[in-house]
Amino acid sequence: MTMTALLAPSVADYEASADLAALLVRTTQNDALSVTAETLRLSCKCAHCTRARFDGRFPEAFPGIAITEIGDLGYGLNISFSDGHNRGIYPKPYLLSLAGQ
């Protein structure tokens, strides 16, 4: 009897879109996904953003926000934005959930 393991998709590759308005992700199952920069910024779970939400001072939108830098930490991506925010670490499974995967 042969056992086949089912593996959940993971992030295989990524890049910012040409206009910097989205993160383009390719999964290990060769799916092409996209997450807007605004969705990423609104979904940041860093301590600063978590506290701002708790205090009721977190913005409801980030119109025109752009991705300015992406750092690969192995387990996730550190994404910097045009508003100067650079504290967000997005674990790769979290990125896939934001992309609807």
TrEMBL record:
It comes from the Bacteria. It holds the Pfam family GBBH-like_N. The keyword Metal-binding applies. Residues 22-95 form the Gamma-butyrobetaine hydroxylase-like N-terminal domain. InterPro entries: GBBH-like_N, GBBH-like_N_sf. Keywords: Iron, Metal-binding. This is DUF971 domain-containing protein. It comes from Bradyrhizobium vignae.
